[in-house]
Every structure is written in C-alpha cells, then in structure tokens.
Amino acid sequence: MARNTGSYGGVYGFPESADCAQRLAEALDVPCHIAELHRFPDGESLVRLPQAAERPVGRAVVYRSLDQPNDKLIELTLVASVLRRHGATELCLVAPYMAYMRQDAIFRPGEPVSQAVVGDWLGRLFDRFVCVEPHLHRTHTLDEVFVGRPSICLTGAGPIADRLRADGVSPDTVVVGPDEEAAPLVEAVAGPLGLAAVVGRKERRGDRDVTVALPADAPLAGRPVAIVDDVISSGETIFSCARAARAAGAASVRVFGVHALFDESVAARFVAEGLGTPLSCDGVPHASNGLPLGRLIADALLRD
C-alpha cells in the first residue's frame, strides 16, 4: 500500500545529489525527477525539467543541499520558476545543508546580514523548508530566517546514534563535542544510548587557527571517545578536540559529522592523525557519507 504522502506529487533534484533525491522519493513513494543542467561559456546556467510540462505539478519537493551555494541558488530560482509556471501549488525546499547562516549580524561596518538576505530570497521562492542541523548562532530557529514560512529543523543525531548502536558501541564510550554549539547534538546522540557526554570550549583565532580545551575532570581515561560535530570543513576543530581527548587518556577516538565539507587534503590529515575517515550524513554528497538522512527527512514530510 502506498504511503500517505500528503499529496506531494514528486521530488525534483539535481545531478550532484541525484542518489539522495531518489532515496527520498522512494521513502515518500513518489516519482523522482532530476533537473538537466547546462553551463554556458560565460558561466550562466540553464535548467530544464521536461517532466514538469507533462501534467500540473501540485505540491512538490525540491531537494538540494546548499554547499558551494552561489550557482546553486541561481539554479534553484530557475527551477522554482519552472515548477510555478507548470502549476506548483506548494514548493517545499529540502536543503539538508543551508548556506549563509553564519553571517547573522553585522560584525564589521559595511558587511551584509547574509542570513537575512538569503532567507528573504528563498522565502519568496518556496512555501516551506526542511533543513538538517542548520549552522545557527544567535538566531534560534529557522522560523526567524524564513519569516512567515513553515520550516522544519532536523537533527543529525539519530543517524549517528543508529550507526553507533549498529556497531555495538561500548557502554563506557564518551560522546564529545568541541564546543557549546555542539552540545544539543552531543546530548541527542548520547542520551538515547545511555552514554556519557562531554562538551569542550573552543577558541577560534582564524579559519584554521583553533584550539579546543576539554574540562579538566572529563572522564576520558581508558575509555573510547566519539567526537560529533555538525560541520567538518577545515578539520582543525576536530583535530584539536581529538588531541585534547587523547591527552586526557582516551583509549580510542572516532569522528562523526553531520555535514562533510572537507577536501581530500583534509581527509588525508584525518588518516595521518590516526582518526581514519570520519563518517558523515549524506545531505552533502561526500566520500565520507555513511549515515543516510532520507528516512528522517521523509518522516518529517509525512508528519507535516
């Protein structure tokens, strides 16, 4: 029997994340359509959705993570225009990684509040939003970003906890987060598994100049550690946190990230640091993906 999909007519995705869009469509039991993209020599994008012209679109899900966001934002705008022209009554943007969330205030004269600009831009195109671990700082909810548009903020803790459980995690494992911003994720991973949780303090002096200090009384000696964080990009935060955990006597260290934004050189450093390859959720396509989000996102859409 087909699931009750709340009358969503299909999932529309993009080539770089076609597999994830297809898995979401399968979880929703609806068709999946992948946009055709063409890049002109001057850098302009052309998008084509031939399926949208076949019948009225109705309610639709558009799936795209907004890592490397600039071209993607333009292409999302073009896709939304096609779907509206062909009868979309409601567009839900599923963007597991949401861009431009960190600049939520004016830090120096002459800067924009990028979060507000992009929130207003996307809010004019889409009727509702689903994101996973958006990198919010002083803004507390996505409703403050997409004003007047319903939004769902999901945590990547479930897939991480599921993987630890499937791997037979030792009951003396300590889940560690590098800073206070990671605390909700740490608690959401550790709590259901009955594991201890520790949160550090991060001092950032630059994009690649980071020091993480763990509490002096952190009970890590002789115990396995699982470091979790929402975004892994330069890797410096994780490297410093892992060194601090080892200095406190951790027996072993594993790393889990929700969004993997790091390149091959950083991946090589993880290996060189004795951390192996981190496991990440598949919202941002990456070689480290091993934690699927499709079921989590589908369940949220079905409840909506």
TrEMBL record:
Species, as recorded: Azospirillum rugosum
Sequence ranges assigned to domain Phosphoribosyltransferase in this UniProt record: 168-255
UniProt keyword annotations, A-Z: Nucleotide biosynthesis, Transferase
Alphabetical list of InterPro entries matching this protein: Pribosyltran_N, PRTase-like, PRTase_dom, Rib-P_diPkinase
Name of the protein described by the UniProt record: Ribose-phosphate pyrophosphokinase
Keyword Zinc-finger annotated: no
Annotated ranges, domain Ribose-phosphate pyrophosphokinase N-terminal: 17-122
Enzyme class, UniProt record, top EC level: transferase
CDD domains with a match to the protein in the record: PRTases_typeI
